[in-house]
Amino acid sequence: MEHLKISSAQRIIFESIKVLDTEPVLLEHSLGRVLAEDILANRDLPPYDVSAMDGFAVRSCDLTATPATLEIIEDIKAGDMPGKTVRAGQCSRIMTGAPLPQGADAVIRVEDTLALPADTVQIIVSVKTRHDVRPKGENMRNGDVVIGKGTEITPGVIGILATVKAAKMQVYRRPRVAILSTGNELEAMNDPVDPNKIPDSNTYALMAQVQALGIQPALLGIARDDPAELEQYLKLGLEYDVLLVSGGTSVGVHDYVRPTIEKLGVSMKFWRVAMKPGHPLAFGVLQCTTTHANTAPDAFVFGLPGNPVSSMVCFEEFVAPALRRMMGNPRLFRRTVTARLAHPVKIRPGRTEFIRVQLTQDDAGYLASSTGTQSSGVLLSMARADGLMVMPAEGTGLAAGAQVTVQLLDGTAFQNDINFRE
Amino acid sequence: MEHLKISSAQRIIFESIKVLDTEPVLLEHSLGRVLAEDILANRDLPPYDVSAMDGFAVRSCDLTATPATLEIIEDIKAGDMPGKTVRAGQCSRIMTGAPLPQGADAVIRVEDTLALPADTVQIIVSVKTRHDVRPKGENMRNGDVVIGKGTEITPGVIGILATVKAAKMQVYRRPRVAILSTGNELEAMNDPVDPNKIPDSNTYALMAQVQALGIQPALLGIARDDPAELEQYLKLGLEYDVLLVSGGTSVGVHDYVRPTIEKLGVSMKFWRVAMKPGHPLAFGVLQCTTTHANTAPDAFVFGLPGNPVSSMVCFEEFVAPALRRMMGNPRLFRRTVTARLAHPVKIRPGRTEFIRVQLTQDDAGYLASSTGTQSSGVLLSMARADGLMVMPAEGTGLAAGAQVTVQLLDGTAFQNDINFRE
Where are the beta strands (DSSP E) in B168-277? Predict the structure, then answer.
């Protein structure tokens, strides 16, 4: 049986899945979604040349010699239109964002002035024309595309959407995801503790991984090792866009998932990937055969390992990129950082290995240390991890100090120390 | 007027705020929250020595010479208890996670065997004792603290919580946050377009920044430049744990926020920080004076700049760390990466400058390029940014190729290319 390279398996997945259809969403609920339409500017912004500072609108030619005393002829608040033209020896008091009056060509900030009696002000500094003036249309010009289709909606993008008053916009819809655990040995959350059983952690770890992508999955529960029961559950799961099945996909004689899933019409694309942890990993497609108007979309099945760490790592490498692709996101893969290895690591060559690591920072950058035993049964190694360190398949290991690539896991968008020089 | 260093301003904030009280949350809703209690193991896991593979439980001493043919005496599924003792020349078929039978001391995976007729199997490889056996209690021992108070609940942590069947747990509560924009020049989302006005983007950009931390803020709207109206709005805002006010806090004569907020009993801790963008930035505390049993918690006010980029940068550097501290999170600051500067950058010395950059990756690591004009009025520079590049206050700039620190912004937890070697 062939063991695929990770990139080959990902290519097969990406060739099968498509970006989903679109739906409208309110601005208030749009964070993290991906735009399915271009967003156009609805005005010039700023609509005029405006002041970039609180201060005084001046003629720069009046300030060739400073200090210079100028007469204040008007008081222009943000939101006001100026009424008077600034002439030689004059200025207008102006607020940030207020339109520049006729005659003026620069702004002096209030900190560079001294207030004098009788509506006059002393200007301390000389400036060039356009100083602290934001030109008309600097931010955006009416009708221009300000944010393109395919952009992930971040807080900065939401600021732009609010600027063009897009209260509602089209985004790609989220996939509907179902999660199923399989195996007689599993104990459900509400079952009493039985030392002969293993608590079902995969349902909840996968739930959280799906939630972290902004999707609320359906938890189907646990299917026992019985072909009829399994078929019922798998049938239900295939009504979703994506079904995640953990356990039951290896070659043991009690594993019914593969034959049952194929019986239901799913075409399996692969069963093995050359990675550790992550054995076995399967991917299949149930192609829609309906010819009616309301065609159901294709369903995709990921068969994940029963081991909790293996299941989580496979999710990160294959399921998360697939779900993000379906939501239209161009960024599919976990953010990577370069780190130095804190200790030597030995591996068996021939498959890519993911070591769970904690990251610390020193003057030379990131340092990666194993979170402890790397047995795929030990979920604590995952719970304590900041990232997955990638050990390439060639070679038998790396020495302490070697440069390694680490994929950052959820929870690492923030760090303990600010770690920059002021 | 003193301009504080960023770290000094942060220290003042951290000295004022406290971690909030706790509340129970269901496992299904716990992602991203911070544990306010230690979580204990409720059993030994695994409860016995178990198989790490699908294969055969053997006596390693039977395999000193291989291939060796063994009699299969039993079939042990996960969830079953073994009934027979493995003696010389015998083995039991065993599934991953099933208890090791008496007599056996190692597991041979099915791939290293050949099936023979009449309930016998040929074993191809020799193994040491304990090979592919996961010892009792390897994952956790009954009564041990498996996840400590103060841990952020990531998907891996949720896997552990499910393992010990913690369906509900105590977490630190989220702060209640209110957002207020100020200024006559602002146009609300539902107002008709008026070229003399500026659309209120700060309300929504701040909303999204707060949402990205898992908090749903209250949007109070826009207070006009009128002391009475402003007082009404500020009074309402101070009923929340944290009030974010953007605009109206500079030294212009029309800025009423400072006197009004002080009139309402808020003690202002600082007004100026030596950073760009970010001018002016204020922080104040309304200390609870009630002596009754049900004391309201203190309220904290951040006065943010009216400029949209400045407001967002100040949120990242001061408000986000404060909100995360209130939620009990030990990780307060944006994740940083080291990058090379793609082009020279000039700055004015004396204040820390944050340049909005896009990040690309090549063989030598991250490359940072400015997103365009760094005017604090140009929100597109923020919408396009992957991160904030930090320019230290000393010096007048950096040459192309210089090593810089970049804080990663929301949307960057994933990247375009997988960027590791298999």
Answer: 168-172, 177-182, 186-187, 198-199, 218-223, 242-246, 267-270, 275-276
**Would strands B90-94 and B120-123 be described as parallel, antiparallel, or unpaired?**
unpaired
B58 in Cβ contact with B205 (< 8 Å): no
Cα separation of B342 and B364, whole Å?
13
CA-based nearest residue to A418, from B310, B174, B8: B8
Closest CA to A11 of B76, B333, B133, B422: B422
In this predicted complex, what is the ipTM? 0.89
Higher pLDDT pick, B259 / A209: A209
Between A363 and A369, whose confidence is greater?
A: A369
pLDDT tens column, B83-128: 999 999 999 999 988 999 999 999 999 999 998 888 999 999 999 9
Interface with chain B: mutation pick from A357, A380, A391, A408, highest number of B CBs within 10 Å? A380
Angle, CA A344 vertex, CA A338 and CA A348 arms, to 5°: 95
Counting Cβ atoms within 10 Å, is residue A47 exposed (0-12), middle (13-18) or buried (19+)? middle
Note the pLDDT tens digit of each residue in A23-64.
999 999 999 999 999 999 999 988 899 999 899 999 999 999
Give the pLDDT mean for A317-336: 97
Using CA atoms, how far apart are residues A24 and A212, in angstroms rounded to an integer?
21
Residues 6+ positions from B240 with CB-CB distance below 8 Å = B175, B176, B177, B178, B218, B299
Alpha carbon of B69: minimum distance to chain A alpha carbons (Å): 20
- Tell if the CB–CB gap between A79 and B252 is shorter than 8 Å: no
Whose tokens are 């990902």? That residue is: A10
**Token match 């959350």: residue?**
A189
What are the Cα distances from residue A372, in Å, to A316, A356, B139, B330? Answer: 20, 8, 11, 22
Q: Which helix (H) or strand (E) element contains residue A321? A: helix A320-326
Of A219, A225, A250, A249, nearest to A237 (Cα)? A219
Q: What are phi and psi of B317, to 5 degrees?
A: -85, -25
Nearest chain B residue (CA) to A419: B336
CB-based contact B199 A405, cutoff 8 Å: no
| A:B CB pairs within 8 Å | 363
Residues from chain A that touch B246, judged by Cβ atoms under 8 A, are none
pLDDT of B253 strictly over 50: no
For A66-87, write each residue's pLDDT tens digit. Answer: 899 999 999 998 778 899 999 9
Task: Write down the pLDDT at residue B226.
Answer: 87
Query: Helices B202-211 & A155-163, crossing angle to 10 degrees?
Result: 150
Hey, which bits of B128-184 come out as E strands?
133-134, 145-147, 168-172, 177-182
Among A51, A204, A351, A409, the strongest candidate for a mutation testing the B interface, having the largest count of B CBs within 10 A, is: A204
Residue with the two structure tokens 């560079």: A112
Kindly report, residue by residue over B366-388, the tens digit of the pLDDT: 999 999 877 777 889 999 999 99
* Domains observed in chain A: 6-21+174-326 (3.40.980.10), 22-45+139-172 (3.90.105.10), 50-134 (2.170.190.11), 336-408 (2.40.340.10)
Between CA B78 and CA B85, with CA B80 as vertex, the angle to 5 degrees is 110
Q: Is the pLDDT at A253 greater than 50, yes or no?
A: no
Q: How far apart are CA B62 and CA A298, in angstroms?
A: 51
Q: What is the pLDDT of residue A289?
A: 63
What are B249's two structure tokens? 């806090």
Q: Which residues of B are less than 8 Å from A422 in CB distance?
A: 5-7, 352, 392-393
pLDDT score at A375: 74
Q: What is the pTM of this model?
A: 0.90
pLDDT at res. B291:
53
Chain B positions touching A138 (Cβ under 8 A) are 373, 375, 377-378
CB distance A122 to A63 below 8 Å: no
